[in-house]
Amino acid sequence: MPEEESKSIVPDVSAYQDDHHAVIATPVDHAAGAVLPPPPSSGSSADDDDDDDGMLRMSFLEHLEELRSRLLKCLAGLGIAFAVALIFAPQMWILVQQPAEVALRELGFQPRLIQQSPIDGFMTIYVKLPLLASIFMASPWILWQIWSFVAPGLYIRERRFAGPFVLTSAGLFITGGLFAYFVAFRFGLKFLLGVGKDIKVEPLISIVEYLDLFINVTLGVGIVFEIPILIFFLIMLRITTPKFLVENSRYAILGIVIVAAVVTPTPDVVNLMIFSLPMILLYFVGIFAGWILTLQRDGRSFPWGKMLLFVGLPLLLTGGITIWLMVAKFGYRLLTTWPFLIK
Fold it and tell me: pTM here?
């Protein structure tokens, strides 16, 4: 074949490489005078790059070192919160013993708690109570450390939940503690102290046993209030779906009632309902948050306008009518503090 008729693709290599850059050779067809397209890239797609970008891969020992670092930071935050709570320990004890004082006075007993051993006062007021307060005070910091430990294994699109996770989790935990103090613990304590009133049994309450009961109820309710966060993460990790949780909600409600019966310090139905109803509500709040997440995954938006119109407005009207009936027909009056309605 004549040489002028033959076509040979000669690469025009102008590659150089220094410490930072490298120029890749571009194939040129000299016979046709055209630049050939570069060969297809063997790398992953843009979507995969977006997913894997920023995902930190660590060895087992590095994970252990990271866990150790986060635990030390949690303990440091807890220690600082404990030091602050220790300053206000006497004032906090006055608030903590107030439910017992109110319950005893309403039942007709002497409103006082007793100390059975010389060390009980110190351990109760200056050790256990500040430690309980420091757990609630340091909960945002501790939850942030938990998220920071988990975050390297998440995609970038999942890390945007850092702020909402910390704020919502800490808010629910603190709200659960407040609900236990203002509602659940007071109702349960009054029932327990009044059990033997009709048979002339006068309660003599130790400050150690009283605070232990207070800690169990407060921490128990605070942890139970984390149900929406647990459900949301189960849906986010695709372990379950909102549809599955709704279809099997009757089993979840049964489990919630059993847990409430264990946590509730009294065996009566009223206190059981006080514990279980908020837990059931939080269960469906978690499903609702997970449903919004699935809508975002599918590229759909949540119909907030219709939701407020068909759900919010009827609830508002029902609440207003209920309050009006209780005030106008049943002799209740409104208060600016808890329980807000009194007969």
Answer: 0.68
